[in-house]
Amino acid sequence: MDDTLHPAAIEHLPVFITAPGQTDWLFSGVVVFLLAMILIVGNFYFRLHALPEQMAHRGKKVQMEIVAVLALISLFTHNHIFWIAGLLLALIDFPDFSSPMVSIAQSLEKLSGRARTGEDEAIVSPPEPEPKSDTAGGGI
């Protein structure tokens, strides 16, 4: 190949124009930069979608599962209302209603004298009613 310039070309070419058969370093640099930016933005996007789930980890298990499902639905459907609902649900700390009720039930068992012997005690079915006998009169 001839390394001389084309007669119509100017004497000083820009640095990004390469000779025929040479590596285009600007194109290679832009491809690497674009791939890196896609990975960085994608990583940020997935971390942002997982934010409500990470916030709900300090809460209760059921609340965390609901928030995780809402975040997953918003990720696949691109409906941001699910993500906002999951974020709000992760921020709200629901009061614990079951612990006081269990405590009240245990106190009432102690007061009635029917304390349990173990936590894994089987639930006893109520006694069956006695068969009625017809003693109040003669039947046919």
What does this protein structure show overall?
The chain has 140 residues and is mainly α. The protein has a domain of 69 residues. 54% of the residues lie in helices and 0% in strands. The protein has 5 helices and no strands. Helix 3 runs antiparallel to helix 4. The relative contact order is 0.06.
Give a quick summary of the entry.
With 140 residues, the protein is mostly helical. The chain has five helices and no strands. The termini are far apart.
Structural class by SSE content = mainly alpha
What would you call the shape?
rod-shaped
Q: Topology as H/E string?
A: HHHHH
Radius of gyration: 37 Å
Structure keywords:
140 residues; 5 helices; 0% strand
List the helices and strands and how they pair.
Elements: H1 25-49, H2 51-56, H3 61-77, H4 80-91, H5 98-112
